[in-house]
Amino acid sequence: MLDTWTNGPAKSAIVDFVGRVTTEGPDYVEPDARVAVFDNDGTLWCEKPMYVQLDFLIRRFREQAETDPALRDTQPYKAAWTGDLAWLGGAVAKHYQGDDSDFAPLTAAILAAHQEISVDEHAAAIAEFFEAARHPTLGRPYTECGYSPMVDLLRYLEGHGFTCYIVSGGGRDFMRPISGPMYGIPPERVVGSTVSLVYRDANVYTTADLQFVDDGPGKPVRLWDRIGRRPVFAAGNSNGDIEMLEFTASSARPSLQLLILHDDAEREFDYTSGAETALQRAANDGWIVASIKNDWKTVFGA
Amino acid sequence: MLDTWTNGPAKSAIVDFVGRVTTEGPDYVEPDARVAVFDNDGTLWCEKPMYVQLDFLIRRFREQAETDPALRDTQPYKAAWTGDLAWLGGAVAKHYQGDDSDFAPLTAAILAAHQEISVDEHAAAIAEFFEAARHPTLGRPYTECGYSPMVDLLRYLEGHGFTCYIVSGGGRDFMRPISGPMYGIPPERVVGSTVSLVYRDANVYTTADLQFVDDGPGKPVRLWDRIGRRPVFAAGNSNGDIEMLEFTASSARPSLQLLILHDDAEREFDYTSGAETALQRAANDGWIVASIKNDWKTVFGA
């Protein structure tokens, strides 16, 4: 177990924690309460050079611009149509710096792309995307961009009576079709951002109304909403995961917080942008930091 | 199995369905897709003479009127304070006839009662209520007002690889503390109506904002939201369950719809009010109707 992890402080901390909570004694945690939550983008799979879901949506914008040429002069359809990834990346980057001038039309287009699609059609479109799409620089399908050591960790925890959930800022209905094949996590244990759904003619449809952004303080809210228990294990990689880790740390039971550090330009990417505060909290509060470079023998497996 | 059910058409239909979907052949359903959803009030436990949650809330209103005497002149606190159950029952009954003149202040008071309670305190208050409260006419604790044949059915389905969920118009956070002990259903498989939650100081709090009414067309929306699969088995007892049963019936897989008929004044209650349309749909669409009088050997067990 955890063979893809280097013997070192991160692996030791995980093994020690799991040993303590599964052994009779003061730190024992009953199996029902062994709930583990995992962020997805940057924690279970690669989030660079852009969110996988953004790639899916850009292709959707391009289809829309194909059908309706008038869109080609308007952002973000213009960027999608001309392949201007810099504009798209800039819109997200500027958003995190407090400038939503490009993010606002991007968000509006994302929501509009969800207007009235049945949940079955939506899942089929996503499955089709994942069959064809490849990561732009890693040269492998997105479905092979999950981190092998994290999949090992999911299985290790499950082998010790934990139940694992994804709690991601990404779209819940975008992750569900691949969470089973990639991570062994079924749709009912995927929590994420959502548009509102509507019932019509014996079917459920997506809408263009944003329902919930599952990020930052939304994460503990949404995970309580879905699970009704406070987790004892949480893994994330960015500032958007702070509240989820903090909520887990405030459990009356022993708990472990894990932060993935992207420091491996050779095998993945090297960045701390968007994770500065989380890393500071980890240093202050005893959260475990797993360095991709030092703690993982492999990133994506064979 | 199903020993509390009389040998008859309802039990036969259930046993036949479960046999078909668990046997290799054209009707086989893989275990992952064996999702069963159950309404709670009137389907898993007694909903008369009033919803159990309303009893809980009336006690809360009485506490509030105790603390703040000014409330005693205002509905619904006045009714709670004076024990005027007729006013409270009337408010709900008039709502179902399209008159919200009393239901509106009742709803406002229900929401106000949820202002800023931590989810742990909320669960503790509910657990305390269930320790003391007894059903007003059946002379037993509410926790013994679950229907034994339905608990048998939950275990029967689970024994055949089904995963069972509660999908109720009742408050999710009201049901969660007792769904385990009463039905063997853990909190993460309880879906219901909710107030919005908020994160503050490493904890999650209820608010006075209504988030979702899990009734009628809200039921398939909410169950998809939570489960991400279309159920193949659904049980309900009222018009508020129609869309959930209809959504299940539209599955590409074999499915079964079960409607509980309250026709046993001696052992429980005899009423069809609020279920007229559902019973008509059952007759038209081949939904199975289980008569409490004829199909259940016992209602509440020993």
Explained architecture:
Chains A, B: Pfam families: HAD (PF12710). Chains A, B: This is HAD family hydrolase. 2 copies of one chain form a homodimer. By secondary structure, chain A is an alpha/beta fold. The first copy, chain A, has 2 domains: 9-47 and 142-295, Rossmann fold (3-Layer(aba) Sandwich); 52-132, no CATH class. The first copy, chain A, contains 12 helices and 8 strands. Chain A has helices at residues 9-21, 52-67, 77-82, 85-96, 103-112, 119-132, 148-159, 172-183, 218-227, 242-249, 276-285, 292-295, and strands at residues 35-38, 163-171, 190-200, 203-212, 233-236, 256-263, 270-271, 288-291. In chain A, strands 1, 2, 3, 4, 5, 6, 7 and 8 form an 8-stranded mixed sheet that branches. In chain A, strand 2, helix 8 (172-183) and strand 3 (190-200) form a beta-alpha-beta unit. In chain A, helix 6 (119-132) crosses helix 8 (172-183). Chain A is globular, with a radius of gyration of 20 Å. The model of chain A has no long low-confidence stretch (mean pLDDT 96). Chain A binds chain B through residues 32, 119, 172-173, 176, 186-188, 190, 194, 197-199, 202-204, 217-218, 220-221, 224-229, 243, 246-247, 249-250, and chain B through 32, 119, 172-173, 176, 186-188, 190, 194, 197-199, 202-204, 217-218, 220-221, 224-229, 243, 246-247, 249-250.
